[in-house]
Amino acid sequence: MPLKITVRSAQPVKESGDVIVVAVNTLSGGSKKKKDRSPLDGFDRALGGALVKRFRKDDFKGKKDQSVGISTLGKVKADRLIVCGLGDAAALRGPDVRVFGAKAARAANTEKAKRLVVGIPASAEPFMRELVEGLELGAYRFTKYVTGDRRPKAELASVTICVADKPDATVKARVDAGQAMAAGVNLARDLSNEPPNVLYPEALGEAARAVAKEHGLKCVVLDFKKIQEKGMKLIQAVGQGSERKPCLIHMSWTPPKPKKKLIFVGKGITFDSGGLSIKPAAGMGDMKHDMSGAANVVGLMAAIGALKPDVEVHGIVAAAENMPDGGAYRPGDVWGSLDGRSVEIINTDAEGRLVLADALAYARELGPDLLVDNATLTGACMVGLGTTCSGWYANNEETAEMFAAAAKATGENMWRLPLLEELKDQLKSDCADIKHTGDRYGGSITAALFLREFIGSVGAWVHCDIAGPSTSDRARGWDGKGATGHGVLTFYELVDGASRA
Question: Is the pTM of this model over 0.85?
Answer without folding.
Answer: yes
